[in-house]
Amino acid sequence: MSNTPEPTPPASNPGTTRIVAGESNKPKRRRTLEIGIAVGLVLLIGAGAAVASVVAKNNETTAAASTSPAAELRLGYFGNVTHAPALVGVSKGIIASKLGSTKLSTQIFNAGPAAIEALNAGAIDAAYLGPNPAINSFVQSKGESISIIAGAAAGGAQLVVKPGINSAADLKGKTLASPQLGGTQDVALRAWLGKQGLKTNANGGGDVAINPTENAQTLKLFQDGKLDGAWVPEPWASRLVLQGGGKVLVDEKDLWDGSQTGKPGQFPTTILIVSKKFAAEHPETVTALLQGNDASIKWLNTASAADKASAINAALKATAGSTLPADVIDRSLKNITFTVDPLAGTYKKLLQDGVDAGITKPADINGIFDLRALNSVTGQKTSAAGLGQD
Fold first, then answer.
1. Distance CA 302, CA 322 (A)
2. Rounded to an integer, what is the distance from CA 354 to the centroid of its chain?
3. Residue 43 scores a pLDDT above 80
4. Which of 25, 81, 292, 319 is buried deepest, with most CB atoms within 10 A?
5. How far apart are CA 348 and CA 374, in angstroms?
C-alpha cells in the first residue's frame, strides 16, 4: 500500500497558482470551525454571483458595441484525472496554441465552489468544474454570472467506504467526506443519503456526518481510520480503494439510467464554464478555448493508455508536484468518458438533487447553456436540452 504525501506546487512553475479548500494537516478539534467556513463559502458564492449579475448588466452595452480577442485568459481547473482535458490541454500546449496571441494563465483549485467564487470575484475568466457549483452560481445571479459552454468528462465518481460497511443502513452514525460543501460530489452524496432515508445538514450533523475535506487530506484520514468513507472523483476514488483499502459502496454511474440523455451510466463530472462578461467582450477567445478543449479531448480519446497515463502524470507533476501510481491512473481512466457533451439533459435532476440536499433553491435554469460556439467548432449538434442556446 502506498502512502503518497499530499502534493505541493513546485517553485519551478510560477505560472500556476494552487488554490485548495481548507488547510492541510487540519486538527480534528477545528472541524466545527472548518464546516462553518465551508458554509460561509457557499454564502460567498451567492454574494459573488449577485455581484457578477450587476457587473454583467453594467457591461452588456459596452461589450455589445466592441469585442476583441482577450490579452489574457485566466483558466481554473483541478488536479484530478477527471480534469484531464485541462491537464493535457495546458501541459501539452494544446489550449495555448489555439489561443494564439492571448496569454494563458492558470489556477489550480480543489473543488468547484472555490473556483466559482474566484470567477464571480473576477479572478479567473473560465473554469473546468462540476455542474452543481455552476448551477448554484447561475441561480444566485439570476442567470447573469456564467454560461456552460462545453463538457469535458463524464463519470468517475464513487462512494468508497471501509470494508465493514455493506449498505446505506450501515452508514448511520458514521462520518463521510466530500471535496467541498456545495460541490458536485457533496450534492450527490447528500441527495443519495436522503433517498436512503438518512438525514444530513450543512453543519455536519444528522444521521450521517459529512465533513467537506480537501481530497489529499481525505485519503490520509481514511488511511488513519478517522473517516468511514468519502464520495470523491477520480483519481481519489481509486486511491481510496487501492491505497486506502476501501471498497466501492456506490458507483455513481449506476444511478443514471440514461433516461435524461440516452447515454446510460453517463453523468457530467467536469464541464467548461465561462464568465458571461468575458464571453460578451471576447467571443473569439472563447471560441479558441473551445477549440483547445475539443482538441485535448480528441487527443485523450485517440492516445494509447500508456501515452495518456504519461501525459496526465507529467501534468500532475507540473501542477501538484507528484505523480500517481500506474494502477491508480489505469483504474481511474476506465471509469471516465471524455466528451465535449455537457449532458444537458441531466441538469434538471442535478438541480433537484441540490434542492433535496439543501444546497440550492428551486429555480428556472433555462439559459444556463450557450453551446452555439461549441457546435460551430465541432460541426455537430450538441443539445442544450431546452436549457439554453445550441
1. 25
2. 15
3. no
4. 81
5. 21
Residues 6+ apart with CB under 8 A from 322: 4, 5, 7, 316
Position of cell 439559459?
367
Residue-wise pLDDT for 63-76, tens only, equals: 444 688 999 999 99
DSSP 199: -
- Model confidence at 320, pLDDT cuts 50, 70, 90, reads confident
Separation of alpha carbons 380 and 370, rounded Å: 14
Burial of 235 (0-12, 13-18, 19+ CB in 10 A): buried
Name the grid cell of 286. 472563447
pLDDT digits (tens, 9 = 90+) for 164-187: 999 999 999 999 999 989 889 999
Give dist(CA 360, CA 380) in Å, integer: 33
Cell numbers linked to 337: 468518458
Q: What value does the mean pLDDT of the chain take?
A: 87
Q: How far apart are CA 48 and CA 30, in angstroms?
A: 26
Please identify which residue in the block is written with the cell numbers 472548518.
34
Q: How far apart are CA 123 and CA 277, in angstroms?
A: 13
pLDDT for residue 48: 52
Q: Can you list the positions of beta strands (E) in 238-365? A: 247-251, 268-275, 336-338
Instruction: Report yes or no on whether pTM surpasses 0.85.
Output: no
Q: How far apart are CA 283 and CA 363, in angstroms?
A: 28
> Of the candidates 177, 182, 165, which has an alpha carbon nearest to the alpha carbon of residue 211?
177
Spell out the residues 6+ positions from residue 69 whose beta carbon is closer than 8 angstroms to its own: 100, 101, 102, 282, 284, 285, 288
d(C-alpha 211, C-alpha 219), whole Å:
13
pLDDT given at position 298: 98
Whose grid coordinates read 485517440?
A: 302
List pLDDT tens digits, range 322-345: 899 999 999 999 999 999 999 999
